């Protein structure tokens, strides 16, 4: 029975071009907190995953397929919510942040999912609010974002040579419905669809996405979930993969 993380997943090495860019930066930008969620549907042997292609107009990772996600906004810390995080996910996140920020990190992934794919994940509840944030769209639809069933499985910090850097946390949630939820293209993502693993590996993927897909496959093979997660980052020109928190 598999019960521990394989930290020997081979990380990509920095190319000479990337090393040169890193050296030419006066100062590496500070990573911004970000959140990504892998939404799955169906049994493990027929799993489908929600992804979309970033617009060519994006200056960060254009024209590649990604999971829904993005920066954590201030509004995420004050959004109404229902449900609770699992003790495992709560413990891992609160090793790094207080409870409000940990919760905001998860909520951000749900907000970004709506903004990028038009899919709202929540529970039916009536609201009276005039929030100016994206969350108002949830409230007008009679939904409260739900934390139930969301688990954390990875973390990746963008290397210092990038002009934009993120401290991205990766979550997973299975959509337990008989039919695939409705989705649509947005200004953020094109070709939004539910893909099988076989289809995903044929898409144009950024190498960090490939690495996190491997971490996802490993996570899905666990019989019992580990108390830590896959963690990738770069230090002194080298990629490092281990766990967070450290075992």
Main beta sheet: 9 strands, mixed
Q: If classified by CATH, what would the architecture be? A: Alpha-Beta Complex
Number of helical runs? 6
Q: Structural class, from helix and strand content?
A: alpha+beta
Span from first to last CA? 18 Å
Q: Which strand-content bin applies to the residues?
A: 25-35%
Low confidence ranges:
none
Any idea what the radius of gyration is? 18 Å
Number of domains: 1
Number of strands: 11
H/E series, N to C?
Answer: HEEEEHHEHEEEEHHEE
Rough shape?
globular
Instruction: Tell me the name of the CATH homologous superfamily.
Output: Nucleoside Triphosphate Pyrophosphohydrolase
Q: Determine the fraction of residues in helical runs and give it as a percent range.
A: 10-25%
- Average pLDDT level: 89
Describe the structure.
- The structure is a single chain.
- This protein has a single domain (16-240), classed as Nucleoside Triphosphate Pyrophosphohydrolase, CATH 3.90.79.
- It has helices spanning 16-24, 87-93, 99-117, 135-140, 197-200, 207-220, and strands spanning 32-41, 48-54, 65-66, 69-71, 122-124, 143-145, 151-157, 166-175, 189-196, 229-235, 238-244.
- The strands form two sheets. Strands 1, 2, 3, 4, 7, 8, 9, 10 and 11 form a nine-stranded mixed sheet that branches. Strands 5-6 form a two-stranded antiparallel ribbon.
- 24% of the residues lie in helices and 27% in strands.
- The chain is globular and about 50 Å long.
- With 247 residues, it is of the alpha+beta class.
